[in-house]
Amino acid sequence: MAGQEITRDKLAELLNEDLAREYQAIIAYVVYSQVLKGAEYMNIADQLVEHAHQELEHALTLSRQIDYLGKMPTVTPKPVKVSDKARDMLRFDLNNENETIINYRDRIRQCEALGEFAMAEQIREILVQEQDHQIDLATALGEDVPNLGGRTAPRAVRAKKKKR
Known about the structure:
With 164 residues, the protein is mainly alpha-helical. The protein has one domain: Up-down Bundle (Ferritin). Helix content is 71%, strand content 0%. It is built from five helices and no strands. Helix 2 packs antiparallel against helix 4 and helix 4 packs across helix 5. It is elongated.
């Protein structure tokens, strides 16, 4: 969207793409939380249940904003990847969270460009939770949190979250 002017219709279209990603996340977290096996994955499985609840809240917030913009919220999720390997499923989730974070950062700027500051604040709240999900998943995979053009979570933050 760089260099392209945002309109309310385009913002609603982009929010619908975000909503489809939230549906994808809900489905993935519900399934992954139940099929992850092994002691090393029990902590993250419990976190995924919590993530699923948060993603539902995100979907409700986005639906409300899309309706506010005069459009119909989508009913179709993006495809959900599955695997027999727990690490693959966590990797799928981490990749999806990374994409979501990048998109929400753009969405905040787009909302502000339209003077929709309250909407931008609601998306900021979603972004905070998505970044927490990213930290949880990277930690479970034993990886550093990807730097997506913003600040990388300090190791102390990741270590603190891991102890929960």
